[in-house]
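re: ur question from yesterday

yeah so i grabbed the chain u mentioned. its 123 aa long if i counted rite. heres the sequnce exactly as i have it in my notes:
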Amino acid sequence: MKRGEAFLVVDRCGNIGTSANGAEGLFFKDTRCLSRLDPRIEGRKPVLLSASAHQDEAALSIDLTNPDLDLEGDPVRRDTIALERTRSVCDAVAYEWVKVRNYGSARPLPDRRSVCVRLPRPP
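ran it thru and got these structure tokens back, copy pasting raw so excuse formatting
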């Protein structure tokens, strides 16, 4: 995705900094501003269902689901939790919206959210 002098390079799951070649990131004026963004569900990578660029290529939609999980002795089968990620770049800012849906039991899932963002070291 590119908008003006900002562009975003992600892997097929929409993540940054998870591939061996390390080419992903959020760049502005050819400087990498974000080098890692890797969401997890209970410490495990979500499973990719689909990914598509919007018609104007200004946004990316990624649909993911959970792998089989064990939450404190309570199994959660794959495809119980849906993650819908939408990303866009505008005016040198990267935006990400995440919608989470639980198709499982009425019992709420633990609310454990964390974000890992690694910024490049200054020269």
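noticed a couple things. The mean pLDDT is 81. also The first strand starts at residue 2 and ends at 3.
anyway ttyl
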